[in-house]
Amino acid sequence: MELLNKAKTGKKERPIKVVQFGEGNFLRAFVDYMFDLANEQGKFDGDIVLIKPIAFGNLENFHKQDCQYTVSLRGNVGGEGKIIDRIVTSVADAVDTINEYDKYMALADIDTLKFVVSNTTEAGIVFDDSDKFESNPPATFPGKLTKFLYRRFETFKGDMSKGLIMLPVELIDDNGINLKKCVMQFIDLWKLSDEFKNWVENACVFTSTLVDRIVTGRPKDMQAEWDRLGYQDDIMVTAEPFSLWVIESPKDISADFPKLPIDNFNAIITDDHHPYKQRKVRILNGAHTSFVLAAWCCGLDIVRDSMKDDDIRNFMDKTIYDEVIPTLTLPEDELKAFAAEVVNRFDNPYVDHKLLDISLNSVSKWRARCMPSLLGYVDKFGKLPAHLTFSIAALMAFYTGSEIRDGVLIGHRNGEEYLVKDDKAVLEFFAANSSKDTRTFVTDYLGNVNFHGQDLNKVPGLTDAVVAYLDDIKTNGMRAALCKIS
């Protein structure tokens, strides 16, 4: 079978405008996909060079295919499940920072370069004072970036028009602000010139971004995919159709960024990405955390089946529309449209998203995703939100168990064991406390400041409500208790 490559795609050569630290599935199915759409729509005219920033792995398959690959979107579109395949031709090359160091650094000399994209994981944006400028390359990503920018600064003799725009997509708060902080620390550590520091400060732009697309990665049956496509593609990637890239920029980047809107890809440039992040965390992630543990205890196993269960779906809808959305700041019509899309994504016929996978670290997830909505609802309406309150009882029921085995807590559903995975302190708390009387158990859990950052027993009526819900779950079962408030 013919291997996908430039000869097959007829790739158009374009100016190099983007270097991208990271060659993984997410970037290729999200960022590179977007630039490819923008190229096709006449809104960018630029290519990308992928940079492998770590020693692990190799770029052999990229080079065999001339960096041409397929993105296969799978999900509900227009009310029906669809597969939408696209051959991405926006990537011109892939370079290894370690084994091709000189070639990598020479990318900084490209006149047309405009953007630096990165996805080096949450641990990638760090400052390490043991990192060395003399290393080829420095060990950390911010160290690599600092030296790369310095090379560009020297090549173009401090030309203020040659600054770069940083587009980090690492999943940390204010990723651009934190990346810039690290770069400035390296400039000081390495005693680089004040002129360079001024160039980074004034010629370069560090944006903070929010990204949202579920990328499911490499298909399980590659041969079947090749037979369907009619060619061999060893680096194809699958993802859902939904996309959102929110970019907060301290300066106007519209002259360089692809012209918006981009058809079939949702990108937003704003002066504040936080309301969009709040919307995603509270609605999408909050919905997951509020219903998955109850759904599991009701006998369900995957998200899609939960969406087809009337009891769970009704519980989730009321949580989102009646209790979460009223606490958010974006316009109500935007929030409801996003919520509708969330439900559409949860019902994806091509993704078997396991409830137990989502249950990982639910205690800290509840604090980040659900607690702000609960407290915001209490502040706004002076009463408890029933469904978010019930989600606490559902969490405690799911975490009920007395045995920790091989680092996990053993729970039981219909006489069968399941594994509860969380931090050691969390599991030890539940193992020691879940067999106590309900009021003591609830009071101790809500009062655990390490779990919630505060004593939730101080929220008027919350302790009594959770005790009542948990007693009902113990006596009548999860589904019967849940249906009483739905």
Report on the architecture of this protein.
The model has no long low-confidence stretch (mean pLDDT 96). The termini are far apart. The protein is of the alpha/beta class. It is 45% helix and 16% strand. It has 22 helices and 16 strands. Helix 10 (274-297) packs across helix 15, helix 17 (386-398) packs across helix 21 and helix 19 (438-446) packs across helix 21. It has 2 domains: 6-270, Rossmann fold; 274-483, N-(1-d-carboxylethyl)-l-norvaline Dehydrogenase, domain 2 (Orthogonal Bundle). The protein has a 6-stranded parallel beta sheet. A 4-stranded mixed beta sheet has the order 4-3-11-10. The chain has helices at 6-9, 25-29, 31-40, 60-64, 101-106, 141-155, 175-189, 194-203, 222-229, 274-297, 303-307, 310-324, 332-346, 355-358, 362-369, 371-381, 386-398, 424-433, 438-446, 449-452, 462-476, 478-483; strands spanning 16-21, 47-52, 69-77, 80-88, 91-96, 115-118, 165-168, 205-206, 208-212, 215-217, 237-239, 244-248, 267-270, 403-405, 408-413, 416-420.
